[in-house]
Specification:
Structural class: alpha+beta
Radius of gyration: 26 Å
Shape: globular
Order of helices and strands: HEEEHHEEEHEEEEEEEHEHEEHEEE
CATH class of the largest domain: Alpha Beta
CATH topology of the largest domain: Fumarylacetoacetate hydrolase, domain 2
Helix content: 25-40%
Number of domains: 2
Length: about 400
């Protein structure tokens, strides 16, 4: 009798074990899918690329800084599985940014997990929608709705021009004692924005063109009257930015004073890229930022967050106290000492045709830009910005 009871109990345990195994097998795809949706097996970046001919602007997921996954095509492949519901893909980067925190982020995570876990990146099993970055053209990641730039936001850049090293250091110390509030200006976008490998064109007759490497903060949510304490919640991600500048100024016989359009607004003067790093894969710029600019291999600028006068979060607070910022707008953090117009660290010099600019931020990437001279423009009536050499002494 006791033997029979043991057999019955043992049989019940076996059936329960089999039931749990079957139940686990049935539920495991659901659990795995949910887990995948909440995280990405690899960090990624996002960019815009010319893949299918001139004029094409394809959004791509950047993996390992070497591989580009076409967003639309990869999503179509993923949705062939009934495990993944159909989700329309964005038509451009600004739309992607506006939808990212409203569910689209998790589809991107699923796409990365799909290509990595199914070995669709290797040469042997590579999907048709995966490309080597060197085989396609990298465009500017997005065309911002508007772009705000911080002026003189690094202590090493305070009164850098026309001073000695000691004089600049004294001016920086004075500024540390009285930071004041930020100063922002509007930088033109369309016409000025260029991407990886595009030429920075020196306008005809403008022979005092300067470089400024900066961190571009991409806004992810509509922002108005945002506190610096909450500003990180409104950030989508980060890019490398250059604020190319014309130090030649206006003719002395014209209306006096500074002219921000002349100084900042020429064509090709707003390089952005090479891609955008979503903030969850970069961390806090106020802890790990290092922005570097090299000209023909010589380091001209190198700075970190400790040199910044106002944090990026304070810049967002200030900017949104003036104008509403929207997803896809950009705010640049300012530049450090080491500009061409500066005299505190080296002799003054400006960009020359044939030189190559390399602007880098660790964890984001490097923008490589050739410098070219503009062709002589056609004759006009005289109401134009003249060559600097024509200015009366």
């Amino acid at each position: 009798m006791m033997c029979m009871e043991k057999i019955i109990i043992k049989g019940r345990k076996m059936r329960r074990t089999l039931f749990l195994i079957v139940l686990s097998a049935c539920l495991s795809p659901i659990s795995l899918s949910a887990q995948n949706a909440m995280s990405s097996v690899e960090p990624f970046k996002l960019g815009t690329f010319e893949i299918h001919g001139e004029g094409d602007k394809t959004i791509g997921i950047v993996l390992r800084d070497q591989l580009i996954v076409e967003l639309d095509a990869a999503n179509m492949a993923l949705e062939k599985s009934p495990d993944y519901p159909a989700i329309p893909m964005p038509g451009n980067m600004r739309e992607l940014i506006s939808r990212y925190e409203y569910g689209l982020k998790y589809r991107l995570y699923e796409l990365v997990n799909y290509v990595v876990n199914n070995d669709r990146l290797s040469a042997r099993n590579r999907a048709d929608f995966v490309h080597d970055v060197g085989d396609i053209r990298t465009l500017a990641p997005l065309m911002p709705g508007k772009m705000l730039n911080a002026a003189v936001n690094f202590y090493s850049h305070v009164q850098e021009s026309g001073t000695t090293f000691e004089e600049q250091a004294a001016a920086a110390a004075e500024r540390r004692a009285n930071r004041g509030i930020p100063y922002l200006f509007i930088k033109p976008t369309e016409g000025a924005v260029i991407g990886q490998g595009d030429a920075v064109v020196l306008p005809y007759g403008r022979d005092r063109i300067d470089w400024e490497v900066e961190l571009a903060v991409v806004i992810g949510r509509t922002a108005k009257y945002v506190s610096a304490d909450d500003a990180e919640d409104y950030i989508f991600g980060y890019m490398v930015s250059l604020d190319i500048s014309d130090r030649g100024g206006r003719p002395p016989n014209s209306r006096p004073g500074s002219d921000w359009l002349v100084g900042k607004g020429h064509d090709t003067f707003a390089p952005l890229g090479p891609w955008i790093v979503p903030k969850e894969f970069y961390g806090d710029p106020m802890e790990n930022l290092e922005q570097v600019l090299e000209l023909d291999g010589e380091v001209m600028q190198r700075a970190g967050p400790g040199d910044m006068i106002h944090s990026i979060y304070e810049l967002i607070e200030y900017g949104t106290s003036i104008i509403t910022m929207y997803p896809g707008d950009v705010l640049n953090n300012g530049t450090s000492g080491g500009t061409g117009n500066g005299t505190a660290y080296r002799e003054r010099r400006f960009l020359q045709p044939g030189e190559t600019i390399e602007a880098s931020i660790e964890g984001i990437g490097t923008l490589v830009l050739p410098v070219a001279a503009e062709e002589i423009p056609p004759e006009r009536t005289g109401s134009f910005l003249p060559p600097v050499a024509s200015y009366a002494p």
